[in-house]
Amino acid sequence: MARPGAGREEPCSRLRGWRLLAGVGMVLLAGCSTIEPLIESPASLDGEGGALTSEQAEQKARAAARPLDHVSLRAKYRRPAELPDGARASGPVVALGHKLFHSTELSGNRRIACVTCHLPNAAWADRKAKPIADNGRPMARRSQTLYDMAWASAFLWDGRQDSLAGMVSGPIASPDIMGLSLDAMVQRLAFSPEFSADFERVYAGVGPTPETVSDALAGYMNTLRSPATRFDRWVKGDERALTPAELRGFKLFNGKANCVACHSGWRFTDEGFRDIGLKDTGDRGRGRIKPQIESLAFAFKTPTLRGVAERAPYMHDGSIATLEAVIDHYDRGGVRRPSLSPDMFPLGLAAQEKSDLVAFMRSLSGPATSAHQADPEAMPQ
Ligand code: HEC
Ligand code: HEC
User: Fold this and answer.
1) Which GO terms describe its molecular function (predicted)?
2) Is 207 within a domain?
């Protein structure tokens, strides 16, 4: 495949070339970012990067044809009232999981707890591009939100885990995260008068084991539901719950902007793995696990957009600082390469459309509605 658009990721060089071609001249070169707003319709730049592939053109046409009436939109975004079967744990299990999640006993140097990188007021992610592990070193990827884990079926940015209970001991034992071997963890908890009594009460006759620790942590994390927001009131039928800008943004999301191709359903994710054309940093994501599938090179899990306004910076590498810049990325369509999803193409959004999309995404954050979400960011020292 010819890749004439491979260099298009640099907005400055792209605009520069276009401006020069258009004969506008050198005066604009210095303040590249200031000329961005002058571009009303980046669609006119399409030709520069080469025509859309037939797959992209097909997806673009499909996006424009999606029904946007309120009845069909509402039907697609209704939140379930209850946790799924199998995700409900008893009160004592959840309480023990809460305690473990906040305890530095689970890290080798007792410097960090799960909550260090999964903060309640950052939608259970953190606000760093690279969180700092117990060994003092930055991790390779950004932390993920833990909202609505009970409905998830693939875990981590590359989906290398397929169950929540199976994955929780991962961060504890990993030398790149909490750095405490599971044997040492069991010893610590068994020798702690407080934890050993807790475990005896909740898992009588079994006590602390990797399985009971996972069970309690998973039971707790399954309760971390995203708060219902004004958007959910709109879905329930309250026409006035969203502002006109938010509603326009929601329609763009489902139509022209094509976001729903991947961020679908009430959690705003299809849990698929896609290359959205971010700059190559050497991390091949899902592609490292399934190297034989070309489309998975640089593919990462589609994140939920619930609580998205609270957890900048964005993407697996924290490379995009704001929601406005996220929209600019999608508007440009991403780096063209063989793995780029055909659902990525230049969108040709006007300035108003961009700000409507951002307004809509902000409507997916809301006030805390449960005790857990109101949990103070108390980090045990
Ligand atoms: C030092 C920071 C750090 C600590 C401490 C930490 N995590 Fe994470 N967590 C991350 C990062 C970074 C990722 C994404 C890693 C990846 O995809 O490779 C992640 C991902 C996850 C996910 C996957 C979410 C999803 O959507 O797939 C879960 C669940 C999780 N962590 C739970 C925990 C639990 C439970 C603990 C404590 C035992 C913990 N984490 C401790 C940084 C941390
Ligand atoms: C082809 C599938 C696809 C399309 C289309 C798509 N996204 Fe995404 N989105 C993803 C994936 C995959 C990621 C994570 C990418 C990564 O980190 O490498 C992501 C990440 C994001 C993030 C960052 C969230 C976070 O927690 O880091 C936001 C915000 C976002 N998308 C919004 C949108 C909006 C708005 C649109 C429409 C303009 C859109 N997306 C279109 C798949 C898609």
Assistant:
1) peroxidase activity
2) yes
Q: What pLDDT shows up at residue 165?
A: 83
**Partners of 300 in the beta sheet?**
274
CA distance 362 to 320: 16
Residues 220 and 95 placed together within one structural domain of the fold: yes
Cα of first residue to Cα of last residue in the chain, in angstroms, is: 55
Q: What is the pLDDT of residue 49?
A: 58
The predicted model scores a pTM of 0.85
CA distances in angstroms from 81 to 85, 226, 228, 231, listed in the order given: 12, 12, 10, 15
Q: How far is the CA of 190 from the centre of ligand 2 (A)?
A: 43
Note the pLDDT tens digit of each residue in 52-106.
999 999 999 999 999 999 999 999 999 999 999 889 999 999 999 999 999 999 9
Q: What is the mean pLDDT of residues 298-325?
A: 97
What are 33-47's pLDDT values in tens digits?
Answer: 333 333 333 333 333
Euclidean distance between CA atoms 199 and 105, whole angstroms: 14
Does residue 17 form part of some domain?
no
pLDDT for position 367: 57
Pick the ligand that lies closest to the CA of residue 145. Answer: 1
Q: What residues make up the domain containing 325?
A: 54-79+228-362
Model confidence at 266: pLDDT above 90 = yes
Tell me how far the alpha carbon of residue 374 lies from the centroid of ligand 1, in angstroms.
20
Domain boundary among 192, 226, 260: 226
Pocket test for ligand 2, best of 302, 332, 339, 343 (most atoms within 8 A of CB): 302
DSSP-assigned letter for residue 208: S
The answer on 102 and 73 residing in a single domain is no
Question: What is the model's pLDDT at position 8?
Answer: 29
Cα–Cα distance, 324 to 339 (Å, whole number): 25
297 and 311: one domain? yes
Beta carbons of 348 and 41 less than 8 angstroms apart? yes
Q: 308 and 208: one domain?
A: no
Write the burial class of residue 307 (CB in 10 Å: 0-12 exposed, 13-18 middle, 19+ buried): buried
